[in-house]
Write the structure tokens for this entry.
Amino acid sequence: MPEATLIADSDLMSRILQRDQSAFASLYDRYGALVFSLARHVLQDDGMAEEVVQDVFLKVWQQAVTWDEERGKLVSWLLTMTRYTAIDRLRKEQRRPLRNSSSIDSLYDLLPDSDSADENLHLDSTALRGMIAALPDEQQAMLQLAFFQGMSHSEIADKTNIPLGTVKTRLRLGVQRLRHMWQAEHPAEDENS
Amino acid sequence: MNTQFPTSDENTESSETAVEIDCSEALALVPAYTVGATDIDETRLVEAALFRCPEVLAEVKTYRSLKTAMLGTAPAVEPPPALRANILRAIEAEPAPVAKLAGGGRRRNYPLGWLAAAVVAALILTNAFWFSQVNRMREDQNQIAASLQQQNDLLLALSAGSAVRVEMYSPENTEDSGYATVVYDPQTRYAVLYTDRLPTLTPEQAYQLWLLQGEDRESAGVFQVKPDGTGMLVFHAGQSFDRYTAFGISVEPVAGSQFPTTPPVAVARF
């Protein structure tokens, strides 16, 4: 896809707004594998992951107007949408109650994006995988259940039979530790005021 | 489907309940909030603190780029080749999106008291970017339609006075019955529901908000209330708000229902 990668995401999205199907195909070629990988990781099922990818890209086609370049990179928007969609699907499959939009960190997403956070997402994520692997196993497990399975403190406690207080402590320490490692590598990326 | 849904509306008063926020408790929850692990009450606490506690807002922002990068940490897996063709076929069958315009009805714009003040304070804390967005709001409605999304857009609408407020009351409409308020942004269809004095429910139950269009009922989400009956739900409407004929709240199983299964505890009809 060398030709497609020369076109800026914003240009692709402008063309998608004009109902340009070739632009949409280019967008899929650029990000389809990333979206599928995330959906597959959440759902652990190829068929359901394919349905989520289809849902996500249909939303792009129908709601391209809602992406705002000033608020973040397209890849972040796509992956955030994928995570929510896949977790919703997972909760339905597991007959767990759906959590309303305000209960899955959605207000968090209204905060201004940092410019560089997703500039080199692949590179950042490779480094981050190493940092996550450096966490104690029990903290990694909590992080996985929360971020990729969409489980709350109490749901993790129920699933693992670990006391609620221990779950909260492990998760808090794990995420804080991850942030410290992350900030050491990316010192000026997030705003502090 | 419950035929008592909806019954009546016509409302006059508004009431806003101040909520005490424990900033230090909210601060300790920020790491879990970042990865979506907070339970409903914890989430409400953190989100309320974002507007009241500058240190909580600052702390949340320190996790921003980490969370973005975490989205890309899933092991790479190639999608099946047929998926691309399926998706391209699916969009061919999709009609062009419908332009959205705000509708009036009996919905009214209101000054929003402390809520608007808190929103403006949050905007100041966030950064000047939001102010440029507010300026755009005054200058270019089309641009706003493109850039206003998610809940920040609703907050901006609140601060600019363009949000629409709808009061929901108990069909009995007695003095001590609970009520709810929906504030929405017509452009982006993002909305917030606040409740007061709704009865607390059993752990197996939850309130569910419904957006009604004729005989169709669209769920806007489930929510719980605190012992004082206050609660909050942020939601995105599936359609332009001027297409709905009523809002209603019913008591449902905690996982929610496909249709209202109990009489409404609060309604607004247009």
In short: Chain B touches chain A through 74 residues (CB under 8 Å). The mean pLDDT of chain B is 71. The longest strand of chain B covers residues 205-213. The two ends of chain B are 19 Å apart (CA to CA).
